[in-house]
Amino acid sequence: MRRKIVAGNWKMNGSKDLVQQLVGVICDRAVGLDDAAEVVVIPPAPYVPLVQQQSDGKLALGVQNVSEWQSGAYTGEVSADMAKDLGCGFVLVGHSERRQLFGESDDVAARKVERVLESGLTAVLCVGETLEQREAGEAEQVVAEQVRRGLAGVAGDQWEGVVVAYEPVWAIGTGKTATAEDAQAMHAEIRSVLKAMDAPAEEISVLYGGSVKADNAAALFSEPDIDGGLIGGASLKADEFISICRSFPAGN
After folding, report:
1. Is 167 among the catalytic positions?
2. DSSP code per residue over 201-223
3. Which residues are registered as beta bridge partners of 122?
4. Of 167, 187, 189, 240, which residue is the catalytic one?
5. Is the overall model pTM greater than 0.85, yes or no?
6. Of residues 95, 114, 187, 240, which has the active-site annotation?
Protein backbone atom coordinates (compact mmCIF):
# COMPACT_ATOMS: atom_id res chain seq x y z
CA MET A 1 0.00 0.00 0.00
CA ARG A 2 1.33 3.44 -0.91
CA ARG A 3 2.12 5.97 1.81
CA LYS A 4 -0.72 8.38 2.51
CA ILE A 5 0.72 11.80 3.23
CA VAL A 6 -0.67 15.22 4.12
CA ALA A 7 2.07 17.84 4.15
CA GLY A 8 1.55 21.43 5.28
CA ASN A 9 3.74 23.95 3.42
CA TRP A 10 3.81 27.13 5.48
CA LYS A 11 5.72 28.98 2.72
CA MET A 12 7.21 32.26 4.07
CA ASN A 13 4.81 32.50 6.97
CA GLY A 14 5.43 31.95 10.65
CA SER A 15 6.65 33.25 13.97
CA LYS A 16 7.55 31.83 17.35
CA ASP A 17 4.04 32.65 18.50
CA LEU A 18 2.48 30.81 15.54
CA VAL A 19 4.59 27.72 16.21
CA GLN A 20 3.49 27.67 19.84
CA GLN A 21 -0.17 28.22 19.01
CA LEU A 22 -0.46 25.94 16.00
CA VAL A 23 1.82 22.95 16.41
CA GLY A 24 0.56 21.82 19.80
CA VAL A 25 -3.04 21.91 18.60
CA ILE A 26 -2.16 19.91 15.48
CA CYS A 27 -0.36 17.32 17.59
CA ASP A 28 -3.28 16.98 19.99
CA ARG A 29 -5.80 16.58 17.19
CA ALA A 30 -3.61 14.32 15.07
CA VAL A 31 -3.84 11.55 17.67
CA GLY A 32 -4.97 8.36 15.96
CA LEU A 33 -4.15 9.57 12.47
CA ASP A 34 -1.04 7.41 12.08
CA ASP A 35 -2.97 4.59 10.45
CA ALA A 36 -4.69 6.94 7.98
CA ALA A 37 -1.94 9.31 6.91
CA GLU A 38 1.51 10.61 7.72
CA VAL A 39 1.24 14.24 8.85
CA VAL A 40 4.16 16.43 7.76
CA VAL A 41 4.82 20.05 8.72
CA ILE A 42 7.08 22.09 6.45
CA PRO A 43 7.82 25.46 8.07
CA PRO A 44 10.41 28.05 7.02
CA ALA A 45 13.84 26.59 7.85
CA PRO A 46 14.58 28.83 10.90
CA TYR A 47 11.51 27.45 12.67
CA VAL A 48 12.25 23.75 12.14
CA PRO A 49 13.91 23.30 15.58
CA LEU A 50 11.01 25.08 17.30
CA VAL A 51 8.43 22.95 15.50
CA GLN A 52 10.38 19.83 16.39
CA GLN A 53 10.54 20.86 20.03
CA GLN A 54 6.86 21.77 20.15
CA SER A 55 5.75 18.57 18.42
CA ASP A 56 7.96 16.35 20.57
CA GLY A 57 8.53 13.99 17.65
CA LYS A 58 4.83 13.46 16.95
CA LEU A 59 4.95 15.09 13.50
CA ALA A 60 7.21 14.48 10.53
CA LEU A 61 9.18 17.55 9.46
CA GLY A 62 10.37 18.94 6.17
CA VAL A 63 12.03 21.95 4.59
CA GLN A 64 10.77 23.95 1.64
CA ASN A 65 14.00 24.03 -0.33
CA VAL A 66 17.64 22.92 -0.28
CA SER A 67 20.71 23.76 -2.31
CA GLU A 68 21.77 21.88 -5.41
CA TRP A 69 25.25 21.79 -3.84
CA GLN A 70 26.30 19.51 -1.03
CA SER A 71 28.41 22.05 0.88
CA GLY A 72 30.84 24.90 0.38
CA ALA A 73 31.03 28.65 -0.18
CA TYR A 74 27.37 29.24 -1.04
CA THR A 75 26.26 31.98 1.34
CA GLY A 76 22.60 31.77 2.28
CA GLU A 77 22.12 28.21 1.04
CA VAL A 78 20.92 25.26 3.14
CA SER A 79 22.07 21.75 2.26
CA ALA A 80 20.12 18.52 2.36
CA ASP A 81 22.57 17.18 4.96
CA MET A 82 21.77 20.18 7.17
CA ALA A 83 18.05 19.47 6.85
CA LYS A 84 18.68 15.89 7.90
CA ASP A 85 20.85 17.07 10.80
CA LEU A 86 17.89 19.11 12.04
CA GLY A 87 15.67 16.03 12.03
CA CYS A 88 13.79 16.62 8.79
CA GLY A 89 12.57 13.73 6.68
CA PHE A 90 11.10 15.57 3.68
CA VAL A 91 12.27 18.22 1.23
CA LEU A 92 10.16 20.09 -1.31
CA VAL A 93 11.87 20.37 -4.69
CA GLY A 94 10.78 22.38 -7.72
CA HIS A 95 7.77 24.12 -6.20
CA SER A 96 6.16 26.39 -8.79
CA GLU A 97 7.07 29.44 -6.75
CA ARG A 98 10.73 28.41 -6.89
CA ARG A 99 10.42 27.90 -10.62
CA GLN A 100 8.55 31.12 -11.35
CA LEU A 101 10.05 33.56 -8.86
CA PHE A 102 13.61 32.25 -8.67
CA GLY A 103 14.07 30.80 -12.16
CA GLU A 104 14.71 27.22 -11.09
CA SER A 105 14.72 24.83 -14.03
CA ASP A 106 14.01 21.12 -14.32
CA ASP A 107 17.77 20.54 -14.39
CA VAL A 108 18.22 22.40 -11.10
CA ALA A 109 15.36 20.38 -9.64
CA ALA A 110 17.05 17.17 -10.76
CA ARG A 111 20.29 18.11 -9.02
CA LYS A 112 18.40 18.96 -5.85
CA VAL A 113 16.57 15.64 -5.96
CA GLU A 114 19.92 13.88 -6.19
CA ARG A 115 21.26 15.77 -3.13
CA VAL A 116 18.11 14.97 -1.15
CA LEU A 117 18.23 11.28 -1.95
CA GLU A 118 21.95 11.08 -1.24
CA SER A 119 21.17 12.44 2.23
CA GLY A 120 18.60 9.72 2.84
CA LEU A 121 15.63 12.11 2.87
CA THR A 122 12.38 11.98 0.90
CA ALA A 123 12.29 14.29 -2.12
CA VAL A 124 8.85 15.72 -2.90
CA LEU A 125 9.12 16.80 -6.53
CA CYS A 126 6.49 19.43 -7.33
CA VAL A 127 5.14 19.60 -10.87
CA GLY A 128 2.29 21.44 -12.54
CA GLU A 129 1.14 23.49 -15.50
CA THR A 130 0.12 27.12 -15.82
CA LEU A 131 -3.36 28.18 -16.90
CA GLU A 132 -2.03 29.18 -20.31
CA GLN A 133 -0.46 25.75 -20.78
CA ARG A 134 -3.66 23.99 -19.76
CA GLU A 135 -5.80 26.12 -22.08
CA ALA A 136 -3.36 25.39 -24.91
CA GLY A 137 -3.81 21.64 -24.36
CA GLU A 138 -0.23 21.25 -23.15
CA ALA A 139 -0.86 20.28 -19.53
CA GLU A 140 0.02 16.59 -19.74
CA GLN A 141 3.06 17.27 -21.91
CA VAL A 142 4.39 19.92 -19.51
CA VAL A 143 3.88 17.80 -16.41
CA ALA A 144 5.33 14.67 -18.02
CA GLU A 145 8.47 16.59 -19.00
CA GLN A 146 8.87 17.98 -15.47
CA VAL A 147 8.60 14.46 -14.03
CA ARG A 148 11.03 12.94 -16.54
CA ARG A 149 13.66 15.66 -16.20
CA GLY A 150 13.29 16.24 -12.48
CA LEU A 151 13.70 12.53 -11.69
CA ALA A 152 16.18 11.71 -14.45
CA GLY A 153 18.96 10.81 -12.02
CA VAL A 154 16.90 8.46 -9.83
CA ALA A 155 17.56 4.74 -10.05
CA GLY A 156 17.16 1.48 -8.15
CA ASP A 157 16.37 1.71 -4.46
CA GLN A 158 16.40 5.53 -4.62
CA TRP A 159 12.81 5.46 -5.85
CA GLU A 160 11.79 4.61 -2.29
CA GLY A 161 12.66 8.20 -1.37
CA VAL A 162 10.57 9.85 -4.11
CA VAL A 163 7.16 11.49 -3.79
CA VAL A 164 5.55 13.54 -6.56
CA ALA A 165 3.21 16.44 -5.84
CA TYR A 166 0.97 17.64 -8.67
CA GLU A 167 0.08 21.29 -8.18
CA PRO A 168 -1.56 23.01 -11.13
CA VAL A 169 -0.07 26.50 -10.95
CA TRP A 170 -3.41 28.12 -11.70
CA ALA A 171 -4.90 26.58 -8.54
CA ILE A 172 -2.21 27.57 -6.02
CA GLY A 173 -3.52 30.21 -3.65
CA THR A 174 -6.30 31.21 -6.04
CA GLY A 175 -9.20 29.37 -4.46
CA LYS A 176 -9.57 27.40 -7.67
CA THR A 177 -9.17 23.65 -7.50
CA ALA A 178 -8.97 21.05 -10.22
CA THR A 179 -11.99 18.77 -10.13
CA ALA A 180 -11.36 15.40 -8.53
CA GLU A 181 -11.74 13.84 -11.97
CA ASP A 182 -9.22 16.18 -13.62
CA ALA A 183 -6.75 15.71 -10.77
CA GLN A 184 -7.13 11.93 -10.97
CA ALA A 185 -6.49 12.01 -14.73
CA MET A 186 -3.22 13.87 -14.24
CA HIS A 187 -2.15 11.65 -11.36
CA ALA A 188 -2.76 8.60 -13.54
CA GLU A 189 -0.67 10.23 -16.28
CA ILE A 190 2.15 10.90 -13.82
CA ARG A 191 2.08 7.26 -12.76
CA SER A 192 2.22 6.24 -16.41
CA VAL A 193 5.29 8.42 -16.94
CA LEU A 194 6.95 6.91 -13.87
CA LYS A 195 6.26 3.42 -15.17
CA ALA A 196 7.87 4.31 -18.49
CA MET A 197 10.95 5.41 -16.51
CA ASP A 198 11.17 1.90 -15.00
CA ALA A 199 10.18 3.28 -11.61
CA PRO A 200 7.98 1.25 -9.23
CA ALA A 201 5.09 3.50 -10.22
CA GLU A 202 2.43 1.75 -8.16
CA GLU A 203 4.49 2.21 -5.00
CA ILE A 204 5.23 5.95 -5.37
CA SER A 205 2.94 8.37 -3.59
CA VAL A 206 1.51 11.15 -5.75
CA LEU A 207 -0.02 14.07 -3.85
CA TYR A 208 -2.38 16.81 -5.03
CA GLY A 209 -1.88 20.47 -4.13
CA GLY A 210 -3.67 23.65 -5.09
CA SER A 211 -6.30 25.23 -2.83
CA VAL A 212 -7.03 21.96 -0.99
CA LYS A 213 -9.52 22.60 1.79
CA ALA A 214 -11.63 20.58 4.20
CA ASP A 215 -14.63 20.77 1.88
CA ASN A 216 -12.89 19.31 -1.19
CA ALA A 217 -10.23 17.04 0.33
CA ALA A 218 -12.48 13.98 0.69
CA ALA A 219 -13.44 13.98 -2.99
CA LEU A 220 -9.81 14.35 -4.04
CA PHE A 221 -8.48 11.70 -1.66
CA SER A 222 -11.14 9.22 -2.77
CA GLU A 223 -9.57 9.01 -6.24
CA PRO A 224 -7.44 5.87 -6.74
CA ASP A 225 -4.20 7.63 -7.75
CA ILE A 226 -4.31 10.54 -5.28
CA ASP A 227 -2.35 9.60 -2.16
CA GLY A 228 -2.77 12.77 -0.13
CA GLY A 229 -2.13 16.47 -0.35
CA LEU A 230 0.45 19.23 -0.27
CA ILE A 231 -1.43 21.92 1.61
CA GLY A 232 -0.63 25.63 1.55
CA GLY A 233 -2.74 28.27 3.29
CA ALA A 234 -5.03 25.76 5.01
CA SER A 235 -2.03 24.28 6.85
CA LEU A 236 -1.82 27.50 8.91
CA LYS A 237 -5.26 26.81 10.42
CA ALA A 238 -5.27 23.89 12.83
CA ASP A 239 -8.96 22.95 12.44
CA GLU A 240 -8.81 23.10 8.65
CA PHE A 241 -5.56 21.19 8.41
CA ILE A 242 -6.66 18.37 10.70
CA SER A 243 -9.99 18.12 8.88
CA ILE A 244 -8.03 17.62 5.65
CA CYS A 245 -5.86 14.98 7.33
CA ARG A 246 -9.03 13.11 8.34
CA SER A 247 -10.50 13.18 4.82
CA PHE A 248 -9.23 9.82 3.61
CA PRO A 249 -12.00 7.31 3.01
CA ALA A 250 -12.26 4.53 5.58
CA GLY A 251 -10.06 1.59 4.75
CA ASN A 252 -8.15 3.49 2.09
Report:
1. yes
2. GGGS-EEEESS--HHHHHHHHTS
3. 90
4. 167
5. yes
6. 95
